[in-house]
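Form 12-C: Joint structure prediction
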Amino acid sequence: MSFSIPAGLEAEIDELITHYPVRRSASLMLLHAIQEHFGWVSPEAVQWTAAKLGLEPINVHELLTFYPMFRQAAPGRHQIKVCRTLSCALGGSHALHRHVCERLGLDAGAHGLQTTKDGKFSVEFVECLAGCGSAPVMMCGDDFHEGVSGKKADEILGGCK
Amino acid sequence: MAQEYKLILKHADEPGYTPDIECYLRHGGYDSLRKALTVPVVELSDGKKKSAQEQIREDVMKSGLRGRGGAGFSCGLKWSFVDRRSGKPIYLICNADESEPGTFKDRQIIHKDPHQLIEGMIISCFANDVKLAYIYIRGEMPKGAKILNQALKEARAKNLLGKNILGTGYDLEIHVHRGAGAYICGEETGLIESLEGKRPYPRIKPPYFPAVLGLYMCPTIVNNVETLCNVKHIVGMGGAEFAKLGTPNNTGTRIVSLSGQVKRPGYYEIEVGKATLGQLIHDPEFGGGLLDGRKLKAVIPGGSSSKVLKAGEKFKLKRKVDGKDVEERPIFLIFLMISIRFSKRAP
Amino acid sequence: MSAATKTDNNPAPTAIEMIKVKVDGRELEVPRLSPDWQGKLAPTTMIQVCEAAKQDVPHYCYHPKLPVAGNCRMCLVEFGTPALGPDRKPLLNADGTARIAKSPRPAIACATPVSPGMEIYTSTPGVKQMREGVLESLLINHPLDCPICDQAGECKLQEYSVDYGQSGSRFVEAKVHKPKSVDLGPRIMLDAERCILCTRCIRFTKDIAGDDKLGIVNRGSYNTISTFPGTAFDNNYTLNTVDICPVGALTSKDFRFQMRVWFLKDTKSICTSCGTGCNVHIGSREEKIYRYTPRENEAVNGHWMCDEGRLNYKWIQRTDRLRDVLVHGCKSSWGEALREIAHKLKQAPPGSVAIIGSARQTNEELWLLSRLKSRFGAISDSFPRDGQPDKLLVSADKNPNSNGARLTGISFTEAGINLAKIADGIQGGVIKTLLVFGENVVKRAVSPAALSEKETTTEAIEVHGITADVLAKLETLIVSDILPNETTRLAHYLLPGCAHAEKRGSFTSTKGRVQKFMQAVEPAGDARPEWDFLQDLVCNVTGKEGFHSIEGLFNEMAKSVPAFNGLTWAGLGETGVSVKI
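Section 2 - Result
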């Protein structure tokens, strides 16, 4: 199994490490950087990160499995996160989730991460996205969408290439 | 008649206001920082000297500012606990892990007026001899992290941050650290653990009080985004002037996050204690009343961690939104998040 | 971090201020600072005070020799501190005693420092209720499979359930299921469902063993102890995590499903795998040894022992153990063989006898050999056995009693320097009689694969020149050993000896700790403890009646060996005495 970090990414990572007086602190930022590049964090990437920071792989694996934003398998190219916390739930997030799932042929009853067969979309319910005043909200990739109606969701999905 | 009082969000929603540094400077940005950095040393009658830092800290104490993160603890007091004799570096962390359900005020500041936060941070760092600070922003706000990084870059370019800030000899670096989806990281010791690259389990107190044994076992200040923004205004207008806002024991303004089935959900900045829950829900200034055909069932005044106020508890609904007053009741009033739940439709 | 060395340099107690506190109404004086898990002075905690007051505070995650984690919440207690008036002066009750302001919130006793005048309450209804609540919460997802759990009988969940458990479960939801029979490493099996996530194992391996291989993965009720996938938890101290696991989550592959712990007889003994002399409990039942577990001795091993030493007991029960007294290959009796040997020795001319003792023998046995040595003006030595040391407990000296061999005069500053001389003496025909105790002197001719299990894996093999051909030149070869080998096969007189677990005696560790051990099981066949038959032999040779108890023998030895002067068998106690070496 060959695993390599491209020079550009490694330079970015080296710069991130300089932000901290203790290398271990850079763990989360490194995992973010690796995930942004590869889409997910493989066991090899965990080992690479640990070696880079002078840690044991379990130290990094502990973080990877704790934080739900990190992926241990490749998700879809476009990741939809629908907020399910109280205000959004009152504002119709379950209907929104159902709408998105049905449109993409996914199980509307599943709360966890699901990916379409073509690998284009992943959909999951997440906790409060701090947009309660404009419920329901969802994220598509890094983009935050407020007051998402079924029609607006269709437009967002349609805009994903 | 209750009304909004915009201090923190004064410019954020003005048409044409952009999050870049030029716009911020045009609106008087970083004037407070310049003021703070040039506070003259005061000679006391007993011959001792009072440094600029001490004076700023005193001013923050005088302002009566309470933390806007959750517990409503006095910011000046928190700063006074910092162990300044340990010889260890002092760290400051801005807690931007806004994840209490129902709260969405920090997002507005970060997205719309990031330099206000950065200015507040630089002043707070200066006042506490901090040389390295972090903004811990929740992972779910990738855009916010980008905006902050951009703003930090702009500030560095103008020598408002970095080495020898504005020629005063003061060095400070601020970095953005992203979370990755964990509510517990909003708890300050959990946040510190997370920032150290560990699982964010809250530490035990004693002995790990952040003011003494915080980040890397060094004295550490953890303040909320809105709290740090307030520091800028305290320096700008003076602590005594700031203390006139709000109520005597609970000063300044608060950004109320109103969500649920009201006509006008959103964030409203009010002077602390100058509006009742009822006004927030019903006044056309604020919530504008319930959505048509809905009946009030309950209000959650401080995020999901607080006690749910049922509609029947009328005396509580009439209380002023005033952190202190409500703290005396068994209610956890923090973010002033107001969720209004209704039965589907009145039969 | 050596647990063993820390305690020797306790700071002077005079410097520490004493404060008065009360535990359940009983006042006691305690130091303001006490040694923490590393032996460094830190504010004295409630749990330390409660222990001093002999007031048991139940706990899972707290361990005196591990960093405090404060996660199990079982040690919650109520407390109060002297109330102060607005002038910061203590308020008094009508009777002049200090008024106590009871804290509205409980505190975890493991992490909360005590302060002057503090009152700790460990047995109030509130505390009882908290313990019940914590225990109930810990058992929510627990499988309650005590009948098939190895920990049963020494499980903290069971023990506290007796005190604070509920007869029925209120939990009606589905339990979270987690991995079972997880192969964590070569010696450890994990049942994640039984785990209460106290993190003792993680802290031990990170902070004591220095091998940060365990962590918690996943989140919330799915939290699970784990290694990084695909890697093994395999350092030389892993089995200590089984000891400190307060529940049945971590089990020893060697011991699991072998024996219910309540059937085990406990014998206080010493590990013989190196010169450190870790104190152990031998768990045996009906003459069979099932396990070693470390026995606390702050001066030696703290709470720990290495895996290699712990599992080094199976050879004792090998079926090919030497069971019979053999004279020229024929079965004989102890009386006959010892009489013949005494006769031969008495006739040996001065300088014709050599003795090779073993630094695996006890002080008493080596001393008896040294008496034979001086009686016949014999040349003597023992074998060095060098291996790889580690930072925690394992010594480079793989003999348990090198100091004993030296102090009794069997070997010299450097063990093994006389071996070549002995080889030459035999070759040259000067040495005609050789006594070999507990060493396979011709071992060097054996391929490593054929080495007996008794030998440790890291041991170096010395080349000394006493080959089988050399031994063949002897007129008399007297050998005592436990397991058969090339040397025992060449013996003219073969005397079956005992493993340490089959006798009593004492060892002197590399650091000069004289420690005694007790008998756990009966010897194999006709085998007798070496001290016992050596006593007879010395008596036969010298005509002087010896002692027939280990106590008398030890006390006699202590008088004659300068380093042991003043020691008595009884005075060794359970944890031994340090002597100047």
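Section 3 - Comments
Chain B has 14 helices and 13 strands. The mean pLDDT of chain B is 88.
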